[in-house]
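Entry type: protein chain
Record version: 2
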Amino acid sequence: MKRKNILKFVSLLGIGSFVMLAAASCTSATTPTPNPTPNPTPNPTPNPEPKPNPPSGGMNGGNTNPGGGQGMMDSAAQELTAARTALTSLLASKNANVEMYSDYAKIKNDLTAAYTTAKSTSDNTSAALEQVKSATSTLQTAIDKAASDKNDFNNQNADLVSAYTSLKDAVKSETTNLVRFVWCKLYSHKR
């Protein structure tokens, strides 16, 4: 799923770059015209009405994109779409990330709150680019902080973590045995 989102994002960037390049380029190819050899005329007649230079595009101030960009996604919209895609990708990792901290209540609660805040920004269709970028950055920081806090806790409390893990494994084993015992008793009574 994550790979698919990354491929979508890269594809959008590639298409967006191509579209922007096409929009920024000239509408038609121009060929340089050689300077004509001067033919001296005896006395040119002056024209009392000067003719303005027609706008020819490019540096003369004409519109180089006569379509007005209609039908094309502008740069800001592309950037917003890319930011929303990045945020959606991070939000997709919620279940896996939160589950990793099931034994760390405070870390899990902080991370869940960060995901909730980011989700509300993602759901807000009128959120601006900076809001989406900020939500993405804040969520990524919370994910990184959760991993760091877990490692710090484990390093500072190695004996406690080891004892907890052993106890958790023992309880899991006993629960499995108890379920088997109850299942066998129920099954034997039905015969």
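Comment: Residues 159 and 165 are 10 Å apart (CA to CA).
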